## 1
Amino acid sequence: GGEFGRLPMAQGDYAKAGRDHGPSGFTSWMAGGGVKGGVVHGETDDIGYGAVRDRVSIQDWHATILHQLGMDHEKLTVDRNGLEERITHTYPTRVVREIL
């Protein structure tokens, strides 16, 4: 499972305070499927606002999962309104081998 990420500080008045999305630093857990046990990969700043070491993009995450399922993320496409698109988009993407 995983979490999109939330900002580390509350927003608004405390009676209705909430935390907005925080896509720059978030947590995700993996187990089995060839993933090393007990591994922590990456690091956020001191308050958890954003990643500062060993960043992994969503596209990298998808490429890694697809790799473990035996699929090539560069060849897997989906139809999106008549346009064939890669699920990992066109961004430079890598399999995160450090966790495998």
## 2
Amino acid sequence: MMKKLIASTLTGLMLTGAAQAHNVFEVNEAKAGSMMIAKLGIMHGCDGSPTTKIVVDMPDGLNRVRPADISGWDVEITMKTLEEPFMLRGFEMWEVVDTVTWSGGSVPDFGYKQFDLWMEIPDLPGTRLDFPVHQYCEEGELHWDDTAPQGADDPFSVPEPAPFIYVTAAE
């Protein structure tokens, strides 16, 4: 009985660690209305194959995003049109960043690379912003795009969890 309990506990710990060892933000909490640099860590390639492209989908409600210019990588953004504009320094803004793509570089399967996003956190305390990540390799691809329902106790309970940021109340 004790062996089964220990084995079960170790399996649970290993699975939790595996979920958190994939593509995650270094800090996954930010205050509503704040500005932050979200540091996305790509922890491995695709079953031995180097990573050559990363695509990050932006969540709804995130109006201001700027990707880092990373040496050796090309960066591009795609925009989406909003149904209602938001105001920025007295101007109506009708478009926001939809996706950020880094390509043209290479991260070995055993390597680590950080992809930074400067962003203004929306005034939505108590919510979780999910950032689905699509990782393309020389051979194969991985999609970290599963999201747990808002308010779920464990956002890592889904098979391939998307990186996320919890929005907390501003002080």
